[in-house]
Amino acid sequence: MSIQSTIMEMAYNARTVSKQIATCSSDQKNAALFKIAEKLKQNASLIQNENKNDVHLAKEKGLSNAMIDRLTITDATIASMIQGLQEVVQLPDPIGTTSASWTRPNQLHVSRMRIPLGVIGIIYESRPNVTVDAAGLCLKAGNAVILRGGSEAIHSNQALAKTIHEALAETGLPEEIVQVVPIPDREAITWLLHQEEYIDLIIPRGGESLIRFVVENSKIPVLKHYKGVCHVYVDDGADLEMAEKICFNSKVHRPGVCNAMETMLVHENIAKRFLPVMGKRFSDAGVEIRGCAETCRILPKSKPAKEEDWPEEYLDLILSVKVVEDMNFALEHIRKYGSNHTEAIVTQDYSRAQKFLKEVDSSVVLVNASTRFNDGGQLGLGAEIGISTSKLHAFGPMGVEELTTTKFIVLGEGQIRE
Amino acid sequence: MSIQSTIMEMAYNARTVSKQIATCSSDQKNAALFKIAEKLKQNASLIQNENKNDVHLAKEKGLSNAMIDRLTITDATIASMIQGLQEVVQLPDPIGTTSASWTRPNQLHVSRMRIPLGVIGIIYESRPNVTVDAAGLCLKAGNAVILRGGSEAIHSNQALAKTIHEALAETGLPEEIVQVVPIPDREAITWLLHQEEYIDLIIPRGGESLIRFVVENSKIPVLKHYKGVCHVYVDDGADLEMAEKICFNSKVHRPGVCNAMETMLVHENIAKRFLPVMGKRFSDAGVEIRGCAETCRILPKSKPAKEEDWPEEYLDLILSVKVVEDMNFALEHIRKYGSNHTEAIVTQDYSRAQKFLKEVDSSVVLVNASTRFNDGGQLGLGAEIGISTSKLHAFGPMGVEELTTTKFIVLGEGQIRE
């Protein structure tokens, strides 16, 4: 069978079984999630053996240590997949809830009932744990899902798929609710992106080039973020000790992720007090600073920032720093170079905090807290399927509810339009 | 200037002023809406003169009477545009409201604040009143808007644009908040659909071919419905008098619109009682019936329905009718031929009503009411900008709130991630 036919058949089957999972009870869905967790435990050594194949091939291909690290399924990876599923079980089931209701003057009773989106396609890179995490969230939200992981993880993902299918079968649910594309060729992605008749939403997770490829080729709506060029603005009304803690955490806690700070903006009134202390802490942590002229005067060891530094997502221990005349310049800088992902202000000034919250056009805007909190788990949505910086449907971290929509329910007693 | 440059400049300008309208107070926005209404009254004869040009050219081109009717701006059209704006003023302003809020265990306070989408593009056909209605709704929701009406309405739309610009200028708002594309060529639409950097959402309104053109060419997310193949299922538990009223209203009240019934499904137990009465009423109203074999037996004057009748949106006094063994066959028929738009059941049976509501995958599902209620105004959303049958972002009629999204607001006191 051609790649095109295989993918079309998968998409068609997903659409077919999506009707079934859409009307499953919470108990049935939770039973399936528990069963997947149980099977992961039982099949752990099978999964890890298949994963060894992938890791072996990845090493032969000369993949970076960081990539091999992400690819490897350790005992801890299995345990964390199981824990993730258990957490998803605990989440409230959004399906069937009514989010609003009202009565019209003609006594029609109108409400909005939450329903699944239908079929979701997830396209991701090397981490095989996404296979289980994403499958769990989609299933909880009553959707069928087609997963397409990185070609380098194909053995691991097929072993995980087998495990999930065993669990679904034992729970009496069709296996096609969770399908993993068995084809390593990129052509499979292109065909997947053309199944607009059967797939309702595509979520790509990975580097910017994968995401751009998906957006450019998709006939299906895509929820994504390209990058996170996150800013912290340290106002002259800031508690500087707090600012130090927040900036350090935003940059250094996990520099390789999308919600890490990439640019620090500092009010000129406090730059001479704040930058030397902050610069020392960053320098001790191995952070390279690329500063504006004023920053370089205050911190002579900094590299001068070039124009291309401001829109850059380093994903590394590198930070661009700019001294600004006041908050309006900070807002202007964020408008020009930001990525609508995550922005924070550190200040004790009430009005400026309010203005920053109102005017910054980012999916998460924080006052006096680390940018690292832009995360579904941290913000209380439960597990997250990704972060969206496009405004349609979802803006920010996406949890189970973002994998659903609402339909209108209208209860009448014979009303007609006059 | 080339068409491409003109459109790019319009999109760039819309993006620029969108920051300003996004943070306008409700009072400012309402003042602008009032002023547009006032100017429409003042400029009525100018607008109607320009409209006469369009109508004259349309007649020369031999456009149908129905199209010329839609194109003509009568005194009543002006009055209804003014009334529409006044109603939009009365709607609550969604911007800046917080739709949920909670506190995390670490005392971070999280909420979701409603914000505008940014820049919206509306592509529509002949009715010039859409220019004013859509501009009003987008402005209320804090968005900039680019409008592209049908080429046959270009003089009317430019006169309306001039009127809106005068009103915006007198309210102290930039004219670029509402822009009307002055280019009749279809190339202008194609370029508009490529401004993904500046435009957040495209809403096409018109016939299926326009909508398919937009979807196929757009790099920007599109909210749309292709067609409304709406069903009423008359259950054997129905109050047959009520069923008669509802089916008649659903088909005959305004047959040319998307929420009119196109197929009636009738339970076999009541077909022999219901169809003769209903058939008589339809026949008196000039409705042509295309029936399944059983329907043709009961109503011998019906035409036999062909397979291609079932997915057909007639938009006319034509109705396909099928007798079904029970509700499950009705549900199956709707799954196979429906367009996820509007479906109604007429029944007094509680369990079947519940099952129908739960299982039918349409943007509006009704019990004992006319399909004609799938309309933003009728359902209480205020004016509507269109109806979506795609599930992402909005499913069903879209009012002001559907032209917005939410961002996360996080208030901390120095919290960092450990």
How are the elements arranged and paired?
The structure is a homodimer of 418-residue chains.
Chain A: H1 3-22, H2 26-42, H3 44-60, H4 65-71, H5 75-90, E1 98-103, E2 109-116, E3 119-124, H6 129-140, E4 144-148, H7 154-170, E5 178-180, H8 187-192, E6 201-205, H9 208-217, E7 230-234, H10 240-252, E8 261-267, H11 268-284, E9 288-291, H12 293-298, E10 303-304, E11 318-324, H13 327-337, E12 342-346, H14 350-359, E13 364-369, H15 376-379, E14 386-388, E15 396-398, E16 404-415
Parallel strand pairs in A: 3-4, 3-6, 4-5, 7-8, 7-12, 8-11, 9-10, 9-11, 12-13
Antiparallel strand pairs in A: 1-2, 2-16, 14-15
Helix pairs in contact in A: 2-5, 2-7, 3-7, 5-6, 10-11
Largest sheet of chain A: 7 strands, parallel
CATH architecture term of the largest domain in chain A: 3-Layer(aba) Sandwich
Helix content of chain A: 40-55%
Number of strands of chain A: 16
Shape of chain A: globular
Q: Decide which structural class fits the backbone of chain A.
A: alpha/beta
- Show unreliable segments of chain A: none
* Chains forming the largest contact: A-B, 64 and 64 residues
Query: How many helical elements of chain A?
Result: 15
What name does the CATH topology of the largest domain in chain A carry? Aldehyde Dehydrogenase, Chain A, domain 1
